[in-house]
Amino acid sequence: MKNKKIITINDLALMIGKGFEGTTEQIKETIEQIGGLEKWAKVRFDILKKEIKGIRKQLTGVVYRNEFEELELRV
């Protein structure tokens, strides 16, 4: 058991501190990326909402085929 090094609580605290260096910057970058993704998604969803609204307008008054065939049989 030669070369056995004793690690103090202070040493351990320093090692843990070094392990977290740069974490703050990484978190900031991640938050910025998420913000950009939110903006991108909002724009895309707004476009989809407009397109769906247009499709619904076009479908106003449209009769489904089965309804038409049932009516055709009755007439």
Structure description:
Helix content is 77%, strand content 0%. The protein has 75 residues and is an all-alpha fold. It has a domain at 23-74. The longest helix has 37 residues, at 23-59. It is rod-shaped, with a radius of gyration of 32 Å. It starts with 8 loop residues before the first helix and ends with a helix. The model has no long low-confidence stretch (mean pLDDT 90).
Mean pLDDT: 90
Secondary structural class: mainly alpha
Largest sheet entry: none
The radius of gyration computed from the alpha-carbon positions, rounded to a whole number of angstroms, is 32 Å
Strand content: under 5%
Which sequence of SSEs, written as H and E, runs from N to C? HHH
Structure in a nutshell:
With 75 residues, the protein is an all-alpha fold.
Which helices and strands occur, and which strands form pairs?
Blueprint: H1 9-19, H2 23-59, H3 65-74
Question: Could you list some keywords that capture this structure?
Answer:
75 residues, mainly alpha, 77% helix, rod-shaped
